[in-house]
């Protein structure tokens, strides 16, 4: 058994003792996806990278992809796009100018991508453009008030890639700049209203410990996460799952 596996086993024991009802946020996102992916749905995954779901959910991802009528993946990072394991229709492109006609899709999704948007008003407008009336934009992203984002802002840029590799096992070439311009409840609601969306779901949720590989830190972090699971600390939870529905009525962009 590797050291990493041993440390994770210690973490699961700690989690079971301190926060037994805690769930990894990706499982919440997967459940939300399953509600919207149906046999009639035409779907585009924004910032698809090399997977829709985490690697250990590959079978569930394959089933989701098979369920829908059609799926396209779009990402600016070509190596990630080429490595995608389940989406066959892939395009290299920018969210600011999506290569699709108006009203092409029933569903647009983004898993841990919205935090990377540098001009979210333009990008939400572009997502609205390619959605059919009553189409849904579903995304999973960090909450800007969560401790993970706050910590990331104080870590020097030169250290971030190395730290992410140590904590998550993610290579430095798979780490991209973050902006957090659509990562609070207020920001999401304002962007939704400005771009013809209705908020269907806006859930703030906790997720697993960042320092899972370091048992003493993980124990302290889990105590904090247990507090986050209570209603008074809701606004400080680390992650957001949001579903926005495009209005069936035309909307007008204010010019000024």
TrEMBL record:
<dbReference type="InterPro" id="IPR029063">
    <property type="entry name" value="SAM-dependent_MTases_sf"/>
</dbReference>
<dbReference type="Pfam" id="PF08241">
    <property type="entry name" value="Methyltransf_11"/>
</dbReference>
<dbReference type="InterPro" id="IPR013216">
    <property type="entry name" value="Methyltransf_11"/>
</dbReference>
<feature type="domain" description="Methyltransferase type 11">
    <location>
        <begin position="45"/>
        <end position="139"/>
    </location>
</feature>
<protein>
    <submittedName>
        <fullName>Methyltransf_11 domain-containing protein</fullName>
    </submittedName>
</protein>
